Amino acid sequence: MYILTLALVLVYLPSACFQPATFPDSVNCSQGLGCRFLGRDVLCTPGEASPDPKLYPVLVLTQKTRNKLRCRQHQDCTPCVHVMLQLGLTGPPALGTSQELHGDTEELLQMHVFLSVQTHHSSNCLAVEIWLPHRHDWQTRNLGSLHFDCFPVAIGGELHFAAFTLPRYTSADVIRFTHHGPDCTWHKAKNAVRLCQVPNLEVSVDLEKAVLHVRDVPEGQHFNLWLYLNRTGRFEGLGKDNLKLLTGPENMTIPISQVFPCLCLQVWPNVKDQDLSSRTHLCPFANDTEALTRAWAKSHLEVKAFEETVSGSLAGPCDLPGEMVPCWRGELLACHPLHPQLHLALTPRVPQEFPRLRPHPNLCVQVRSNGIAHLQSCLQGYIAGSHQATGHQLLLRETLDFQGNSSFHVLEQSAWVHIAQAVSTRKSILVEALQNDILSGECMQLWHTEGSEATVLWACSLEKYSRTHWALAWMVTVLGTCCILLALVLRKEALKGWLRILKEDYHSRGIVQGRRVLILYSPDHVDFEHLVGILAGALAKLQFSVSLELWSRGELGSLGPMQWLHAQRREVLQDGGAIVLLFSRGAVAGCAEWLGWEQTDVLCPIKPDSTFLASLNCALPDFLAGKASGKYTVICFEELLSADEIPALFRTVPVYPLPSQLFNFLLALAGPHVGQEQRSSLRRHAVWIIKTLERAVQGCQPERPPTQNLPLLPPQLGDEQLQETSSLPCANT
């Protein structure tokens, strides 16, 4: 529970609420001066200023104001303003002896001071006559002061003053000043002014509700309490019972589903004239991170495609800060922002259009705040015939320099790569073909900038190139299948074993009973992710229910790594599954960096959005508390990373180097209730999976140079091609 002290933010309250007239209780002057109050409703007309006299001084005024309290009885006070006018002399330029002035001092013995005070609803002018002693020392410039005690002022109100003397001279101009009355934060007002005596509020929050505790309601006073959502330009009441009359201490319950950062309240005295009441504004959840997360979850992003533009509109309970960013969704379902200039600051509940951006099935719009994508909506469902187009599109960026020369870059693996480097196979043919497609108009212009260094974004279809590519691939596949069958015929025993596995119910849930497995790994590079995909695909073939970052990029883009990890971890542990930590050199480096250990080797960096680093937040407490056993399993590819190089903290659970310990790893995943027949089946399957992994790991040996780039054409691997993908090269991790 945390206590919120009410900070009063008061609206203007007219002074007529306190006292019908704006005049002081008393007027007096300091010792040595004589004064007489002439009236409070005189005519204030300063008139034209006369030139300063040459033989005697001119009376000038300066002012000081301060706040006071006028009390009728205890705790029934109103604020007022005490005004002090300081009287002084200036000049003359050439002053003779006092004897020479003796005959001229009669004019200085008597003068008049006028003080005008105005509010928004009233105006008064006060006149005071002042006279000096005949034997005054004219060399003394400070004559004394005139005190007005005191003018009523509203809580948070203001008074406008003007003061002058008659006769009026050029060097003694009219002085004008404004005094702002105190609000309820003034230390003297809290316990003395009835309108500043408000209840104390405390807020407590649990998993299901928030409770507003109203305490210390002043005796004999009633207050109104209003719950509302503070939106730009308007307030919206929270539900039907948003206005409540407070007559004493009580507790108000607010469902946790309605607790947002913009949820605010107002408290004001229940008086006859509601418009003249001072109001307290309070937003207790403005800095609550859980309330902010809840507001994002309740918000909705709507994206629409028009003929030549794309628009987005955000609707939600609060006006959240952030920006809308269009992005390109590629093969792995990750969405990459198109260009730094393409973003719009969020305007609540108003459709916003992206200038010069044409709709395309691969385009999405994200709502981002503080570098995090909270919402994402794509155009695929808004464009007819777009469901088959997203997988065969390529995004190119053309940059024109001052001389008109063009350079092309391709969006590949969330990074812009020069087209010559991105196309690793049939480089010259495909590069030339894509440039010809742009010139011939077969590529679609998505967006362009204006200026001397122009940038153009193109979307090009690869479907016609894919048909040629896959025709050759099918021929190679058929030829390879024939060779494999021939080899199996020559090896009769191997053929029998293969047929025996085919006869078994490979998809039967009786082997592993659909146990859930969450594999957490470091995405060191694309080749290593292919290797992880081979392992995950083999487990999925055995009917394990596998969760993998590589297969969930779309969901990751919407939720973020931490929320996705929490959801997957909760489901796996609730179903009695297992969490597998796959360590590589990049994972060890990321773990060391996260834990602050010193490292001497140059290790591969980890992507900043990796779920492996996010998983350390959840896994490390379990390992430190000794609760990891039965929940976590640690593996590594022994040819790429020795088990001894895994941090000792994570070796407190079983560690299985693959592929040599694959069978024991499968037994650990299958659980303790595996019968003899199931063990035999897993052993036979392990033999074939080990061979697949061995061929894949061979490409990760140090003496083999790493692959620099992947083919430009997107791979389309099915279940039947699992064994073919095992031969893909994997860079050294």
TrEMBL record:
Indicate the secretion signal residues. Answer: 1-18
Query: What is a biological process (GO) this protein takes part in?
Result: inflammatory response
Give the UniProt entry's GO cellular component terms: plasma membrane
Its subcellular locations are:
Cell membrane
From start to end residue, where is composition biased (Polar residues)? 723-733
Q: Could you tell me which residue ranges the SEFIR domain spans?
A: 514-667
Q: Give the record's keywords alphabetically.
A: Cell membrane, Disulfide bond, Glycoprotein, Inflammatory response, Membrane, Receptor, Signal, Transmembrane, Transmembrane helix
**Protein's membrane topology:** Single-pass type I membrane protein
**Domain of life where this protein originates:** Eukaryota
For the region Disordered, give the residue spans.
700-733
The residues that cross the membrane are 470-490
Record's compositionally biased regions (Low complexity): 706-717
GO function terms (MF aspect):
interleukin-17 receptor activity
Main location per the UniProt record: membrane
**Assembly information from the UniProt record:** Homodimer; disulfide-linked. Heterodimer with IL17RA. Heterodimerization with IL17RA is independent of the cytoplasmic tail. Associates with non-glycosylated IL17RA constitutively. Binding of IL17A and IL17F induces association with glycosylated IL17RA. Forms complexes with 2:1 binding stoichiometry: two receptor chains for one interleukin molecule. IL17A homodimer preferentially drives the formation of IL17RA-IL17RC heterodimeric receptor complex, whereas IL17F homodimer forms predominantly complexes with IL17RC homodimer.
Q: What is this protein called?
A: Interleukin-17 receptor C
